[in-house]
Structures are given as C-alpha cells and as structure tokens.
Amino acid sequence: MSKNRIFSGVQPTGNLHLGNYLGAIRNWVRLQADFECIYCVVDLHAITMQQDPEDLRRSTREVAACLLAAGIDAKDSILFNQSQVHYHAELAWIFNCIARIGWLNRMTQFKEKAGKNRENATVGLYVYPNLMAADILAYKATHVPVGDDQKQHLELTRDIAQSFNSAYGVDFFPLTEPLILGAATRVMSLRDGSKKMSKSDPSDYSRINLTDPADEIAKKIRKARTDPEPLPDSVDGLKDRPEAENLMGIFAALADIDVDDVVNRFAGAPFSKFKEDLSALSIDVLSPITAEMRRLMDDPGYVDGVLREGAEKASEIAEPIVKEAQDLIGFLRP
Ligand code: TYM
C-alpha cells in the first residue's frame, strides 16, 4: 500500500475565497514538501448544482490558475480536473453500491445545500460524498487536507473503505486521515460571524475573493461586522464574540502566529486600528497570488497543458487501483 499520499479537491464554482485559502490551499502548498500530492479541480462535483457551461470552463481554469499562483508546483505535484480521469466516476458507482442511504441521510452539507426543497435536489447532490470517497480512494490516499466543513464527508469515506474491505474480505482501501490544520479551519462570513464564509453567499461583502484587488479587500475589511467593545486582552474574552474571534483567527492564520499572540498584540485596541492592520496584512499575503493568477489567466494554453499532463499522471496511479477493485468485485475482464 502506498505510504503517505495526499489527495484533496476544490470545486470550480465561482471565486475562491479566503476560507478556501486558509482552510485548505495554503496547507496543500506546504504539504508538498513532505508528501506525494494529488490536487483536483472537482468539476464532476460542481455539476451537482446546475452550471453554465462557459462559466464552468472558465472557473475550472481560474481555480487551476489560482492553485498554481498560490504555490502548487505542477512538476512535483499532480494537478488536474476530475472529469479528465474516468476512474473517479467508475469507482463512485461502486461506492454508490456500498454506501447506505442511512449514512447519506446524516450528511449535514446535503441538508444545507438542498435546503427546504429536498425533493427537487439532484440525485448527484445526494451521492456527492460517495464521489468524494472515490476521488480519495482511487489513489489510496492516506491523508486529506481540508477545512473543518469536510470532516463528516471524510468520516463517510472511512466507512465506505471499511465496508468495501469487509464485504470482500480484504485490506484494500486505507482508512484515510483528515488533516485539518492552522488557525483558520473554519473562516466565517465577514457579515455574520455565525455563518461560514462561502462562495454561495449572495453578499460579496461576506467574503474576500482571491481575485479581489487591494482596494476591494480594504473596503470589505473596513465594512466587516464587529461589536462595539474594544478587543479583549485574553483568548477567553473572545467567547460569545464571533466576529472578533473570526477576524483575529484570520489575522493569526495570515501572520502564521497563534491567536494568543494576536490577542496580546491588540489587547484593548479599537476595531478600527485592528482592521487597518488586518487589511494591510491581507493585501500583503494575497496580492502576489492575485497578480500571478491574472498572469496565468492570460495564458490559458499553459493552464490547460498542466491539467492535461496532471490527468495523465493521475490516470496512471488510479488505473491499477480501480482495476483491482473491479477484480475483487468479480467483474469479468477478459
Ligand atoms: P470546496 O470547494 O467547498 O472547498 C475547498 C476547500 O476549502 C475549504 N473551505 C473552507 N475552509 C475554511 N473556512 C471556510 N469558510 C471554508 N470554505 C471552504 C473546504 O473545507 C475544502 O477543503 N467537497 C469538497 C471538494 C472535494 C474534496 C474531494 C475534498 C471533492 N472531492 C476529496 C477533499 C477530498 C468541497 O466542496 O470543497
């Protein structure tokens, strides 16, 4: 069994935001030093909600460009879009026949995304976590770096692996470990500290997009919701102050320091001072990524080439694994 292989994915549905960056992408970049890494733009997952074809194509390139701009090294790591490697969909079907309806009924993300009109949600949205398990297990990935919101899906991936192994009396799929790292594993909306920062929030002021120019970042941070109290002098003082806690967590993650240190630095300060510093720091960290991403978007041929080569390398790894799974099941392959 392969040792220490990373897999993770991101949906090409609109702009990437600070939550994606701090919760996932920045960790993906760092993990490249110690792991074999496979990163995927999950366009099959994207179509669980209807997408405009042109938007999907543009967004797939844009997300890939953003990953490269953030520091994914296409020579060392594998970067591709999911639909180019047919093994994901093939293994997902097998997992549709392993996972139980009861397991999927417990998925909170399905409930959130389907909303009140559950009967009208696509079947794809319902079995979304099975495809995610297939993404990971087609490569026998051992570790999956994600934000906190993906934890439940990764538990399901372990249940699927275990259930497959026991159904066929084998020790074939690994029990994958989530890697939920850093000071900002769940970045919240800038407009409401009780809601996750998300691509689908109708208010653009709720998030910092990785494509936002510096003046837009500054404006969004200036307008971010706060409470009237000055900043606390201990981490305990952040309790019941979700907006302060979120902004200080973002600061800690961007500066690569502990929240304790941020609290000490701004103890008793008004939000206005803190926001000024947070704004400067955010622009410092994000501007080079945005600039490089724009440069790459002017060269779509290069980005497409990276994805094509990545897909070839990914297929080489997935092919023997998925074929062996098919043999274990008893599919005839003369
Ligand atoms: P997606 O596209 O919603 O998000 C990509 C990554 O960003 C993280 N993230 C956040 N982290 C912190 N705070 C936030 N507000 C925030 N919002 C998003 C997510 O946790 C994720 O790590 N189902 C996945 C994509 C996927 C996948 C996979 C991930 C498909 N197959 C296999 C891992 C392994 C998703 O929709 O991520």
Structural category is mainly alpha
Note the gap between the termini. 26 Å
Give the strand line-up of the largest sheet: 1-2-3
Proportion in helices: 40-55%
Low-confidence stretches: none
CATH topology group of the largest domain:
Rossmann fold
- Ligand roster: tryptophanyl-5'AMP
List the secondary-structure elements in sequence, H or E. EHEHHEHHHHHEHEHHHHH
Shape: globular
Rg computed from alpha carbons, rounded to a whole number of angstroms:
21 Å
Top CATH class of the largest domain: Alpha Beta
Note down, in words, how this protein is organized:
It is a single chain. By secondary structure, the chain is mostly helical. It folds into 2 domains: 5-185 and 299-329, Rossmann fold; 204-295, Tyrosyl-Transfer RNA Synthetase (Orthogonal Bundle). 53% of the residues lie in helices and 7% in strands. The chain has 14 helices and 5 strands. A 3-stranded parallel beta sheet has the order 1-2-3. The protein has a two-stranded parallel sheet with strand order 4-5. α1 links the parallel β1 and β2 (36-41). α4 packs across α8, α4 packs across α14 and α11 (242-255) crosses α13. It is globular. The model has no long low-confidence stretch (mean pLDDT 96). The site of tryptophanyl-5'AMP has 24 residues, from β1, α1 and α8.
